[in-house]
Structure formats: structure tokens, C-alpha cells
Amino acid sequence: MSDPKDHKDVEAMTPIERHGAGNIAELVAADAVEKTAKARRLMEAGVTIFRPDTCVIDAEVEVGAGTVIEAYVQLLGTTRIGAGCLIRSFTVIENCTLADNVLVRQNCVLSDSRVETGAKIGPFAHLRPGSEIGEDAHVGNFVETKKARLGKGAKANHLAYVGDADVGEGTNIGAGVITCNYDGVNKFQTIIGKGVFVGSDSTLVAPITIEDGAYIGAGSCITRNVPAGSLAVGRSRQITKEGWAAARRARKKEQG
After folding, report:
1. What CATH code is carried by the domain that includes residue 124?
2. Which residues are catalytic?
3. Averaged confidence pLDDT in the chain
4. Which domain holds residue 160?
């Protein structure tokens, strides 16, 4: 709450503004008044807020004109959001900077991170502190990042964990990929170059470097550096025993 002395029209103040909050109920009520006023100022400046009564927007938050904020969004701390963005429902953004034309889909949590122009986040994505999402990059459903940089156009669209990692431009991180950054004592970095394809369900055991244009076969556990333009596969050889399933069913049937 601002100091009453800063107000020119003291008579127009509410009792709480004049005398302060005497209990938690009054403090919450005063905060609601401030949040309503903040939402109104943003809308007057060209921000669309659907159901502003359901949103929480802190005093220091800045939002560019043309941005749309859906119901039940929380914008907290020193968050800065550019112009032409869409922040969809049930998203929480705290101390983040979003450039212009960013899409944040439903149910995302972003903390102490930066998202560049045209990037798409979510739904159900979690950007933990230190994440830097590049221009036109995608961080999709149930993807978590932490101290990770995704270059321009990089994609991690499904069920991945990218932690302590540097991911180059145009790289594709497949579904279920994990950067294994922690050995129980220390954290280590994964470096992935430009135009890399990391197949689904792979584990990248840091510290490790995967150079530009490399391919990682699906289901691999990669523990050594991969040179540029190479294919790395780290999985056991498939064994197929023809007729095994039918024979097993027959035995079970005989055994009753």
C-alpha cells in the first residue's frame, strides 16, 4: 500500500488506505483493491484480461499492449510480458521476462526464466529458475527445464527433463528424454549442438557433449561424447524368439 501522504484526495481514500490494515481480513481486502486497480490500468493500456476478478497480478508486473490474459492466471513479482502474447488459464509466472508474441498454454509454471519472441510453452510445462527459451522454440506438455538454454527453433515437446543443459538451434528433443545431470553429489552439464535429433526415451548422462547434426537412437543411454554428424545408439540388441508366446500359452493351458 502506498503512503496516504502521496494521495492528493485524502477524502476519496478508503478507511484501509487512510489508516492501514488492522488484521489479516482487512489486509486481504486491501490487496484485492490493489489487484483490481492494477488489472484496470493494464486494460486501459491495451491488455485484454478475461475475468480479471480471478487473476492475480502484482504491482510491479508489466504487460505489453495486445497481450491477452485468460482467467485464473497469476503474474507475480517482477514479471515482464511483451506485446501480443497469449497467457492461457491456470498459468503461474513469477519473476520472468517474456518477449513479444509468446504463447503460454494452460497450466504452466514459469519461475525466474526468460522466453524469447515467438516461443511456445506448454500445456503443463514447468520452467524452473535459469531457463532461457530461444526465439520460436517449443517447450511442450509435461516438459521440465532447469538452468537450460534452448536455442532458436529448438523443440522439447513431450515428457522430457532438460536440466543444466545447452541445446543448440533447431535441435529436437524426443519424448521421454532425460538429461541425467546429478550424480547424487554434484551437478553436471549436457551440451547439445545445432540440428541434433535425440530419439525418444533416451538418457544423456552428463557431463557429455553431443555435437552438431548428430543422431541419438531411441531408447539409448549415452555416456560418451558424440561427434558431429554421427549416429549414437546405446541399447542392448533385440532378441526375438518366434513361437515363444504361443508355446507359453499352451503350457499354461496344460497346467490348468
Report:
1. 2.160.10.10
2. 158
3. 92
4. 105-250
